[in-house]
Structure formats: C-alpha cells, structure tokens
Amino acid sequence: MKALTKLCAPLILACLTLCPPALALEPDHVTPHLRLYSVEGDFQLYRDALEIAITGRGIVINNVAHIADMLQRTRDAVEGEPVYRHAQALEFCSAVHSRRMMEADPRNIVYCPYVIVLYETVEEPGVIHMGYRRPAGGGDDASRERLERVESLLDGIVREALAF
C-alpha cells in the first residue's frame, strides 16, 4: 500500500497542479438580451470544447459562421479596423426543446436556431469570450417556461465548454 501511495502521490499532485478544479464560473456581462462569459486560454481548445458540449447532447451543429474571417475579408471594402483574432458562431437546434417552445407559442420560431458565439478580440489576446442571445420572450406562462428551459440548455452548454 505504501508503494502505491508513493507512486500515486506525485501523479495526483501533478494533476492538481496542471488541471486545477473548475471554478464556479459567473458571467461577465448579462443583459436581458445576452449572456457572456470570459476565460483566459486558447481559442481552439474552447472551440473544440464547445463543439463537444453541443454534440455530446445529441445535437447536430447546423452551421458555423466564421465571423472573424468575414470581417477580415471585407475590411478593405468598408475601411474597417480589425476587431477579432478569432470569432465563430455555432448554430444548432434541439429537436425536443425547439418543438416544446414552438408548441407553446408558434411565434417562438424566431429563437431558432440557437447560436453560441466564441471570440477572442485583437485588444485582449488570450481572453476567450463565449455567450448566447437569451431567449427572453413574452407570451403565456407555458411559453416563458419553455424559453427558460432553452436558456438553461444554452447556459449549460457554455458552462460545460468553459470547464475544460
């Protein structure tokens, strides 16, 4: 048993040093329309983590908008300055959540597809921002309850991705 402890102790210490436990993450910016979180790290790592957090729920990503690339491509035509080092928006729908929110109120179709953005600005390299538009609609109690479930789904996906 002592030999096992001597062998495992350095390994456990290394894991705790290199992979600290995820902190309870709080959003940096919240309005009635959006919620954004920020962490320091590598864009591609969090991009991959976001994809895993979405597809791990059995949800298919419909589209990836390469926003930074588009802004770079059109920069000269509009005489613009660089904004992002990296920026993408991942679009997807959940068959269950989407159906439930539209059954509650057909006008809730405006919230589909769901979009989670991920970006790193030119001004803050190494700071990764991730967030989503909040599906804060009106309607009756059933509609609001369904939209709250959609927001819980989006927030859960973002928090899972940022926990990497």
Task: Sum up the structure in keywords.
6-stranded antiparallel β-sheet; alpha+beta; about 25% strand; about 160 residues
Description of the structure:
The chain is an alpha+beta fold and 164 residues long. It has helices at residues 2-18, 43-55, 67-78, 95-104, 141-162, and strands spanning 29-30, 34-40, 61-66, 84-92, 114-121, 127-133. It has a six-stranded antiparallel beta sheet with strand order 1-2-6-5-4-3. Helix 2 (43-55) packs across helix 5 and helix 4 (95-104) runs antiparallel to helix 5.
Task: List strands and helices in order, with pairings.
Blueprint: H1 2-18, E1 29-30, E2 34-40, H2 43-55, E3 61-66, H3 67-78, E4 84-92, H4 95-104, E5 114-121, E6 127-133, H5 141-162
Antiparallel strand pairs: 1-2, 2-6, 3-4, 4-5, 5-6
Short summary of the structure?
It is globular and about 45 Å long. It is α+β, with helices and mostly antiparallel strands. It has five helices and six strands.
